[in-house]
Amino acid sequence: MSNDSTKFTRLPESDADREASERATREEVLDFWDERFGVPPETFDDYTFWERGKGKLWIYRGEPPSPVDVEALGMTFLRTRQEHWKPTLEAVQRFGEHASECVIHLSEGEAEAFVAGYDQELDWDGDWGYLVVTHDLAGRQEPVGVGLYVYGELRSQVPKGRRRELGE
């Protein structure tokens, strides 16, 4: 099955159901979130996963009406056709509260720099790679985005159009 950038295709449940070797499966997506971030697979029980094009995954709560001709379905969730899978900002903001692994908590000043798009030298004793970045908001630890931690530096992955200067 070839990828069509104009159509959403539901992810196969497992490797046994996969027609294209490069296409992710639901099982692999659940394993990724569980193994990398400690998000339990049952967190996604009410959701379906869809691919549009090559490796751009979307998550949708429930079952869409079929047939349906749409430009978007749910929200973008994960990029899979690259060396390291990358969760989207939206996915981390929505599901990052369930993460127990690869979570870095930032102070107010660090969080302000992060959402403004600045890279920062920070100490982190966990795995390198993509992290759920959190900060205290309204008395709770809340996910604010995706960071890439390499070589002692947290690199902001906040898209340019979503960056904000919050300081004075």
Give a verbal description of the structure:
- It is a single chain.
- 16% of the residues lie in helices and 30% in strands.
- It has 168 residues and is an alpha+beta fold.
- It folds into 2 domains: 8-96; 102-162, Archaeosine Trna-guanine Transglycosylase, Chain: A, domain 4, CATH 2.30.130.
- The strands form 2 sheets. Strands 1-2-3-4-5 form a 5-stranded antiparallel β-sheet. The chain has a 5-stranded mixed β-sheet with strand order 6-8-9-10-7.
- The longest helix is centred in the first third of the chain and has 12 residues, at 26-37.
- The protein starts with 7 loop residues before the first strand and ends in a 12-residue tail after the last strand.
- The model has no long low-confidence stretch (mean pLDDT 90).
- Residues 2-74 form the DUF7122 domain.
- This is rRNA small subunit methyltransferase F RNA-binding PUA-like domain-containing protein.
- Residues 1-24 are annotated as: Disordered.
- InterPro entries: DUF7122 (IPR055546), Nol1_Nop2_Fmu_2 (IPR027391).
- Residues 10-24 have a biased composition (Basic and acidic residues).
Attribute tags:
five-stranded antiparallel beta sheet; Nol1_Nop2_Fmu_2; five-stranded mixed beta sheet; rRNA small subunit methyltransferase F RNA-binding PUA-like domain-containing protein; alpha+beta; 168 residues; DUF7122; 2 domains; Archaeosine Trna-guanine Transglycosylase, Chain: A, domain 4; globular
Summarize the structure.
It holds the Pfam family Methyltranf_PUA. With 168 residues, this protein is α+β, with helices and mostly antiparallel strands. The chain has three helices and ten strands, in the order βαββββαβαββββ.
